[in-house]
């Protein structure tokens, strides 16, 4: 008897959804940085637990949207939750019930009728046990969660118990993906996400959110290596200079870090070539949204 189904991870930006997804899957399939709002699309990671295949959907963080890209990201997050068999709400132990968590609790009323929703209190190592118990009680008083788990996605505490419970609750049925597949994102998009993560880590302030990376071409070579050409789109000339850096130092460092991670991830040599293009209106172009796995119409 096999089981399979979708589990959506929802929560505020930086709650630890991508970290939890990567730990569950056992490989890096979602962008993880210290900056908020880094996951833009619904990224699916596939984990096996016994005879159960768990397809995790790492959604963009739920926040108060200001522009088209923000609105499309929030729509993608709620859409991922509404399509899933089970939903895991992640909150940060040390932040407690924020205004953002309050908004999510209100939204759960619309999707929670037909599926079980569990609470995962993350980053438990940052607070005292009494604080955890109080937070758990307050959250469960506000919403009838099917279960509550205390976890540290970064360190792995409590993650196996959550994984076991999710596996036992998914419906019986055939697996949805081959057993050895860890993600359903095209490799071109994963490669672009890896480069964008390196840029996000390297750069500061508002720039990373006005920038996107696309894999323009992917050439398989006879020696088993691959050549990947990517374009980094920014909205103004000043941003292009920041991405390139003094004498090209920033773009060289980003390229080296992304190339090394891609080579490790794919288990073969990668030749990565980056170029930066100024596209003032990329945030209003449907094609850019499609490349990110978002629906342009959702941002209207």
Automatic annotation (TrEMBL):
GTP binds at residues 11-18, 58-62, 122-125. Its main location: cytoplasm. This is GTPase Era. An essential GTPase that binds both GDP and GTP, with rapid nucleotide exchange. Plays a role in 16S rRNA processing and 30S ribosomal subunit biogenesis and possibly also in cell cycle regulation and energy metabolism. It holds the Pfam family MMR_HSR1. It comes from the Bacteria. Residues 58-61 are annotated as: G3. It is a peripheral membrane protein. HAMAP family: GTPase_Era. Residues 37-41 are annotated as: G2.
